Amino acid sequence: MAFTGAASDQRNSPSDEIKPELMNTPLPLRARRPLVLAVLAAALAGCAPFNYTAPDSPQAQTMLAPFEPAPRIALVLSSGGPRGYAHIGVMRVLEEAGIEVDLVVGSSVGSLLGVFWADGRSAAEIDALSQTGGPLTLFDLNPFADRGWIHGQRLQDYVNTRLANRALEELPRRVVVGATRRSDKAPVFFTEGNAGVAVRASSAVPGILSPVGIAGTEYEDGDESLPLAVRAARQAGARFVIAVDVTPRPETAPPGTAAAQRERVARRAARIAPEAAQADFLLHAELAFGASPLPSYFRYARSTGESSARRQLPALLAALQRAGLAPSVAAGTTASAWPLQVTPNPPR
Q1: CA R_g for the chain
Q2: Distance of alpha carbon 168 from alpha carbon 60, whole angstroms
Q3: What is the CB neighbour count within 10 angstroms for residue 100?
Q4: Alpha carbon distance 171, 163 (integer Å)
Q5: What are φ and ψ of residue 213, in 5° steps?
Q6: SS (H, E, C) the chain
Q7: Which position among 57, 79, 108, 225 bears the catalytic label?
Q8: pLDDT value at 259 more than 50
Q9: What is the pTM (predicted TM-score) of this model?
Q10: End-to-end CA distance of the chain
């Protein structure tokens, strides 16, 4: 019987009641067949390669044309998985200092946080957003996913829903999303089109999140080619580039760290070094070597990013002063007046 509202005075008729002896009766084979087919169809859908072909498909560029007007201050956010939460702490310090960023460049987790900052959200709002839900809010686990175990549709929808389905070029602050072309591992940049698809491509870690096809070309995590895409900001014509790197320093690896992990971090540092050299100011978040997907680690990373930025803020303000881009006094107070936040020990 259909539900007709709280004021309904109707009762179930004898024919509507479920007989107890039928409650545990197995479905006949013929009745089970549609259910089995539905499950198989869902599994096969996850196996199929994803290829986005809608009119708002992001267009990959291997080199950016100079932006008009030229950005004054660009913020480049590195990849880094859970370590990327340190970016939120850095954003907070930049906001308090009155440093007005008019271009955001992000790779992987840096692209996810970057599009939300480009949308006009404050660091506090992004922080609050990051604490809602859990991993399943962003990731659709599927053992049948194409070349991974996370399909990626949920991440795409999460971004687009919270951006009110606006394209990258429609956001209040200009943004560049970095990714990797899978066929030749070349870095590419998205500046227009579907924001969720672009972030999904930038975050497609090989073997974990399925590759993202766009108009027949597959893309994967920006970390694979350009973890810190300073060149994108330079090509866009930014006058001053602040780069934020959350990679652990190889020399901080604790005793007993696996050789493969040390090598992986060293390779990543080697890809970052030439990009960092092109920045006007490199802000390094002094995170411990190990990382974790636990909420306690996210809090630690945010706090460490903030404390690292506060320590380096006087030098950053001096560099901006030399470039004629110092923030206005009305933004807050002098750098020496900001309290130094103590960084907690990393969670065990």
Answers
A1: 24
A2: 13
A3: 14
A4: 8
A5: -85, 135
A6: CCCCCCCCCCCCCHHHCCCHHHCCCCCCHHHHHHHHHHHHHHHHHHHCCEEECCCCCCCCECCCCCCCCCCCEEEEECCCHHHHHHHHHHHHHHHHCCCCCCEEEEECHHHHHHHHHHCCCCHHHHHHHHCCCCHHHHCCECCCCCCCCECCHHHHHHHHHHCCCCEHHHCCCEEEEEEEECCCCEEEEECCCEHHHHHHHHCCCCCCECCEEECCEEEECHHHCCCCCHHHHHHHCCCEEEEEECCCCHHHCCCCCCHHHHHHHHHHHHHHHHHHCCCCEEEECCCCCCCCCCHHHHHHHHHHHHHHHHHHHHHHHHHHHHCCCCCCHHHCCCHHHCCCCCCCCCCC
A7: 108
A8: yes
A9: 0.82
A10: 54
User: What are the tens digits of pLDDT across the range 55-86?
Assistant: 999 999 999 999 999 999 999 999 999 999 99
- Phi and psi at 198, nearest 5°, equal -65, -45
313 closest CA partner among 288, 298, 289, 333: 333
**What confidence tier does 229 reach under pLDDT thresholds 50, 70, 90?**
very high
- Under 8 Å between Cβ of 113 and 155: no
Cα–Cα dist 163/165, whole Å:
5
For this structure, is 108 an active site residue? yes
Give the residue from 314, 267, 313, 309 showing the smallest Cα distance to 287: 309
The upper half-sphere exposure of residue 158, i.e. CA atoms within 13 Å in the direction of its Cβ, equals 21
Q: Which of 221, 223, 245, 280 is catalytic?
A: 221
Residue 225 annotated to the active site: no
